[in-house]
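Issue: copy button drops trailing tokens. Both records pasted manually instead:
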Amino acid sequence: MKMATWPGLTVLAAGLLVGTAVPAAALGPAAEQRLDGSIAVAGNTCTWTNARTSANPPSTLTVDRTSINAPGGNLSCAGGITATLNNDPQFTFDDAAGTARTDVIDITGKQSFISCRYKASGVTWNREGDTRKYVNQAFTATKVSGSFLCPGSVTTAAGGASMLFR
């Protein structure tokens, strides 16, 4: 294990959601109740497509972790990092304010034989224009289990993660 890439794993654990923009108008009756994502971690990229959601924004919705994690989903990472979403995060939306809020994000990241599990609560996301792309406000995820080599907490800067509902 190269320690230089370890910070990338903890960033992954703190924020696993990144996407691209789509007009809000695309969320009409034909909206797919899907979430695509990608995050760059220390020069490595983790991506997934077609995660299932229980509703379309701005309705409160839950993301189905089994549609992100393998074998039901296609979450994959380059550079020897693996990740697993441990919960089904719930999102609430305030369209007037252009924000979304996540109840809890619970993620395990693994590199080589080292595993670290982190949780972040009450993460707030800002909508980009009239799209359904949201970028995070800064937040801190706290270690809940894992190796002594895992930091006790990790902070994701504002804009370090995003999500796209389609």
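Record 2 (pasted manually too):
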Amino acid sequence: MKSSLEVDPRPGHEPGEVVPQHDVVCLHGGEGAGEWFAQQLDALGARAWEPRIGVNFDVTGPPGHLDEWVEAASSALYESTAGPAHILATGTAAYGAIMLAALHPEQVKSVILGDPLVDTSVEGFVATLRRVRAPSLVIAAAPDLDTDISIPQSIAGGIRNGVFVIIDNTAVPAHQSRSHSFNEWSRSFMNIAEGLHTVTETQEEHSA
């Protein structure tokens, strides 16, 4: 399957910043990925991906629609990188990132979900969360003390290596309204994930 890939590599970063060694890919549900993740591309050395026209992310769409989006993202990763990538997704596309990590674990170094909008009652959702093996960070904006953070919290709790972070006094989506904090959490987490990956690879080499 051929997908449309918006590649926007931007290696420039501020002096002293530690940039993740592996590919960082921001997945979007439809058009406008570059604009939606504009504040992550430079800061994280990331690139944005969006599906070809007609494959917009829709968990309530026709049978196979969601699978098509996930496979398009997977195909794009195979075409553009030689190794696993850090996957970042927000809003409704978070479920697609979860499915990608569950179905194609060899392609995913870590998962970062910003303000995920997921229907946790979808059939198979809990089982899909349990299949995710990559270290996963869920970031939720909390505009006020009464903000309902149950969905992102349950997602982080359902993933074996899940971590949950709240950014207080921040409008949704956090990756835009408080981009500096969001990016710092993301960068730190990706670097930790790379360290864990290196340890795992070393252990596997010794046991081979």
